[in-house]
Each structure stands twice: as structure tokens, then as C-alpha cells.
Design goal:
alpha/beta; 14-stranded mixed beta sheet; seven-stranded mixed beta sheet; 15 helices; 18% strand
Amino acid sequence: MELSTFNRVFSLVSLCLLVMLHFTLNLASDSSDEANALVKWKDSLWNNDQSFLPSWNLYPVNSTQLSACTWAGISCDHAGRVESIILTNTSLKGTLDEFSFSLFPHLLYLDLSMNQLFGSLPPQIGNFSNLTRLDLSNNQLSGNIPPEIGLLTHLEILHLSFNQLNGSVPEEVGQLSSLKELVLYHNNLGGLIPSSLGNLSNLARLSLSSNSLSGSIPREIGNSSQLHVLDLSSNHLAGKIPTELGKLVSMNNLVLNGNQFSGGIPQELGLLIELEYLDLSANRLKKSIPKDLGYMLKLHYLNLSNNQLNEEIPDQLAKLFQLSALDLSHNLLKGEILSQICRLENLENLNLSYNNLSGSIPSCFEGMKGLSFVDISYNELQGPIPDSRAFRYAPVEALEGNRGLCGAASSLRLPCKTFTSHKQIFKGWQLVFTVVFPLLGALTLLIVVLIIYQRRKKRNNESNLISCLSGKRRNHENMGEFWMSTVSNIGEKATYKEIMRATENFDPKYCIGRGGYGSVYIAKLEEGHVVAVKKFDIHSLHPSEMANQNHLLKEVKALTELHHRNIVKYFGFCLHAQHSFLIYDYLENGSLNKVLGCEVEAKKLDWNMRIGILRGVAHALSYLHHDCFPPIVHRDISSKNVLLDSDYEAHVSDFGVAKVLQPGATNWTVVLGTCGYTAPELAYTMKVTLECDVYSFGVLALEIIKGEHPGDMILSLSSSLNRMKEKRRLRDIVDQRLPFPDPEIQAPIIKILNLASACLDANPQLRPTMDMICKEL
């Protein structure tokens, strides 16, 4: 090789080495700068405890090796540069003023939610040019949202809810072309909603509720074609609801309640055929209810209460077969209650109170077995009260204010009177003497025969039919009594004999699970319905505990009054000396415990499905704790009592030990529930609280992520998140049977682990509520 050629090659190699060395030194320098900046920010915080973020230190001092990649809450890319800072619920106290935003150009995720950060949001936040997720919710931040937020053009998720931010929503938010979620609820934001939000073509969720926003929803929002959730509730918005909202054909939830909207409900809302939840209550809406709302065939919640709507209830609402809650109260509606409303087989809650409705209540209400709550107070209704469960158990407040009503309910006894003339009275008595008296003897004999026949019939358990819930508590001390009931139409013709036939007298081969109080069997009825039958073991309880049938009745009572998509559906029950059982909806995939215990089945539950299951359980518990009055504590939340349907959606089951928290009562109890999920304070306080369920939920959350019961891991989590992160990296915690989660999935998983840590706090008062957990999930 010629010397000149050799020199050229040597020079080229030397140049490459110099470039690589320079690049390596730059990476080392970048890593050191990031580590130093994080420690500087840590030192500026008000946490003086030596145990606070102990892994965040500058030792060893060799700057060429210094890196934050192994620190708690920090994740790095392949080049060793910080790309994720997730410190949810770590008790951070202080401001963001000392945070060196410019030193983290590769940061993708910043999650400091559920802490105690205060002060303003610095404008330097705009230096995070590659940031895709920013979550500072549940802190004490104040001041304005800086307009520099608009520089975060890669941002997909912006959560600043539950703070004290004021000022207006900056127009620059409309520059966030990648934004999918904008969540700013529960702040002090005022001014107008910026019209620039219409530029966000990828926006799927917009939540600005519980602020002080004023002015007409901007019509430009109709351009956000991917919007699924729009929540502007509890503000001071006025004007008309823009017809352009009808362009948001992907919308699932539209929540505009608690504002000052006027005019009519635009008929264009009927174009939102994917809508499931619509709340326009507590506004100043007038005119009639649009017939076009009848096109929302997926709607399950409709609330138009506390407005000034008039005219009659349109019969098109009877097309909303998925509707479970309908509230038209506190309006000026007139006319009669539609008989077509009885077609709404899924309707559970109906409120028509404080209107000008007249006429009689349709008798077809007696066939609406799923209806559990009804309020028709303060109308001009008359005639008999339907003999249905909802009316029978309605409080007096739900019926009062209607002078013409008559009949019997649990809180109302008004005989239905018939006025007759003197001639009619004479003819009536003449009929009594000439016809009735001669038949009285024969009738009496017939009644005696029937009584004897019925008593014999009760002893023959194979001839008893499942009948409608009568609401009359029988004497269950006599175990010879037999009682079957239903709140759904699947069992109208199903007999005890059929249940026994379908299970071959509860043959073990039909057993699909066992619990603390009995076994569960699968039964295929003659009409094609497949149900689960929970047969109670009469010997399952200790003699000192309540009688077994009382536990059964407790679960029945709980189930008949609970209606939620994430709570198992109940069909009927039987109480008998030989066999006592409940009939549930059969859920194809069985219990979560069974699925997680089988490697093949567990692999089917990917990370998104597991997060969805946890959300379902959270919503069910939030319903029990915050939407039921008095609140209900389940007391036995575990993977065995979470059932999965064909779509792997979660349904909470087994209310045998549920307890209603009566106001003013001490609510003491013996320790019940599944070992390994029970809150530790029950062992020494013996007092049932909502926090007991929260603790169990925390254990379940860990089990879903880990793929098995967390065991001793509970002890390390219940003390502090930082200790957990030092001892156990995410890779060691997650279910090893699944692929390690991608970065976009890691953030919600870490949030779940942080929530679980908070749920397992030794101090029950420091645990989050299920309502808070639902908002975070």
C-alpha cells in the first residue's frame, strides 16, 4: 500500500475514533448533567427526610460514569439519556422552579401526579420538545397555564386536573396537533374556551369540568372528529348548545350539566349514534325534547333534569332499549306517561318528578322487573299505583304531591274509592242476597280445599315455579318453606325441577367453582339460557355465626338492589331445607383467579385487558361506595370474586358478606373475607369501613399486574413507594408470562402500582377513595 493511501486510511480511522470518542464523551456529559440536575431539584424540595428518594445521589463521584438510569422513577433510552420521570404519589413537596427543563431534551414522559407540588407552572416547560405525556394532576399548582405549553407539539396527553390553576385556557393549546387527551377539570380556570381547540384533529378526550369557564361552546369544537368524551360540566357556560356537536359522530360521552345553556336541545344531537352517556341537566333549556334523541340506540344514561323543557315526552324515547337510567325531573313536561316506556327492558332508574304529567300510571310497569328506582312525585297523576317492585318499595317522597293516586306501596296506603248512586247500591245488595250468599258456603269449602292443596304443594319442591319478587319476607325459621324468585324474565317458566334436571341433582361434573359458602354449577335451561347456580352448603358456617339462609338473603337483597355493568347480574334464588341456591348470569371466562392461575389463559390477558379489568372493578366499588345510600362495603374483594365475561370485562360477584354502612351505627363485625386480601386494621378494630375494600383493591391490583397474589410484596409496598422501587424494578414485578410492556403501557402500569401502594397504606385514613382511584384510572 502506498504511503499516501495509508495516510488517508489512517486519517479516516482517526477521525472516526475522534467522532466516536466525542459522541461518547457527550453522552457521558449529558448523563452527568441530567443526574446533577435531578439531584439539584431534589435538594430544592421540602422533603428533608433522609429516606426521601435515597437512590438519587451523586456517588460514585466519577462524572464519566454518573447516570440516573438506575434511580427510582427514572427510565432511560438505549443511549442512557433520561426519557421517563414517573414519581406518582411519592409525597413530593415543593415547586418546579429549580427543575432544569432545558437539560432533558429526550424526555418523553413526565408524571408527578398525586403529590404536593405548589407554585406556578414555569414557562420553561416548553423546552420539553419531545414530551408525549405530561401529568401534574392532583397537586396544588396555581397561577396561569403558560402559553409556552403550545411548544410541546409531540404532546399526546396533558393532565392538570385537581389543582388551583387560574386564568384562561391559552389559545396556544390549539397548536398541540398530536394531543389526544386534554384534562383540566377541578381548577379555577375562567374566561372563554379557546376556539383553537377545533384544530386538534386527534383529540379524543376533552374534560374542562368544575371550573369557572364562561361564554358559547365554540362551534369549532365540531371539527375535532375523533372526540369520544366531552365534559364541560359545572362551569358558567351560556348561550345555545351548538348544532356542530352533531358532527362528532364518534362521541361516547357528552356531559354539559351544571351550566346556563338556553334555547332548545339541538336535534342534531340525534346524529351521535355512538353516544352512551348524555347529561344536559341543570341548565336553562326550553322547548320540547327532540324526537331525534330516539336514534341514540346505544344510550344507557340520559339526564335532562332541572331545565324548562315542556310539551309531552316523545314516544321515540321508547326506542332506547339500552337505557338504564332516565331522569326528566324538574321540568314543565305535560301529558301522560307513555305506555311505550315499558319497552325499556333495561331501565333501572326512572325519575319523572316535579313536572305537569297527568293521567294514570301505565299498568305495564308491573312487567318491568329490572326497574329498581322510580320517582313520580309532584305531578298531577291519578289512579292506582302499579303493583311492581319499584313502586312497592318506593319511599313516600317518591309518590307524594299527586292527589289522585291510590293503592298500596311500602310508604303509602290509599284505597282506590269508587263512587256509586243509591240505585247502584240497592242493586248491589240485592245481588249479594240473591246470588252471593247461596254461593258463600260453596266458596268457603273451595277455599279450605285450596289451602290444603297449597300446603301439600309447598312440600313438593319439584312443583314450585320461579315467580316474581313479592317483597314479602316469609318466616325462614321453618326450613320446610320454599321460596324462589326472580328479577328478570329468563326464569318466568323455569321450575325447580328444571334446575335440578340441568345440573343432574348438582352432579359434581357440573361444578365450575367453589367458594366459602358453597359451590357454583353451570345449568343450561330448556329455553336456551345458560346460568350459573350457586348452591349454598348448609354446613359451611360455624354454629356461632348467623344461619346460612340469612347469608343467602343478605346476598339476595344486595344483588336485587344493585344495578351496574361491572356487577354480576342476578336472576333468581331458592330457599329450601334440601337445596338453597342463587341463579346468576353465566360468565364464560369464569373467575379472574382461575384465568391467572392457568398459563395459557393468563397469556390471553394482555396489559390493556388487565388494565381494563382493574378499571371495571374500580367502577363497581366506586358505585357501591359513592352511588349507593347507605354505602355498601363488599368485604370480600378478591380475584375469586371477579368474574370475566366473553369479552374479559370484569363483574364483581359474591355479596354474601357485604355490609351496609348505616348512618350513625358502629358497624362492628367479625373478621370475614378472603385471607390475603383483608385489611390489617380489621384484626384489632373489628370495624367495617370503606377503606377495607380499598385495601383489598390494592392487593387485587398487584395481583393483576404480577399475575399472582403478591404475598410478602404487600409489606414492602405498604410502607413507601420509593422503597418498592429500590428493591424491585418494574421488570421484576410484572407478570413474566407476558412480553415486557412497551413504554406507553409502562406509564399506566406504574400509576397502578403507585395507586396500589396508596391503597395498602397502614393508615386507613391515608388511602385514596374509590372515586379518586376511578378518576386516576
